[in-house]
Write a structure and sequence with these properties.
three-stranded mixed sheet, alpha+beta, 180 residues, two-stranded antiparallel ribbon
Length: 180
Amino acid sequence: MDASRIPTARKLMEKVPMTLSPGMSLVDAIEALAQTHVSAAPVVDEDGGFLGMLTDKDCLRIVSVSAFHRPRGGRVADFLSPVSQAVEIEMDLFRIAEIFLTSHFTVLPVLERGKLVGCINREGLLNGISFLTKVLEDEGVKVERESSEAVVRPRSIGEMQQAFAKLSKEQLVRRVGRRS
């Protein structure tokens, strides 16, 4: 399969439904998340530079703390989650999947030269997998939809590489197809 056919973040991302500023009141941010029905929102500075994400889980921590202490206000900057790995605009489906597997985020920012240009969620990744399956089938690659053999599912790219290393060339061709 031609690598240029593998979907990238550019194809899979969505518009950012909302952004938050670091100085915004946490209570206002929670209301905004609830009204837009999103589980996380990027936090950006005045120049559009990405600072982190405020997630529904970050907001739930406030409830937890408030159960034992006086309810606490604050600013978004005090509660946002830093993102150690953001998605770059030209990253492919496989690299994005690896980031999701090693991250607790359900939504990831898509950056181009450090600026926020979109977001990608797990549903977007599933759409990318579906697209890739159709591309493979259109190229004549038989995509197994059922298998009688037991399958050990790798949980990371490293485990996938180890699994592929154990296969013969013929087995690899049978499982992933032959590049032309």
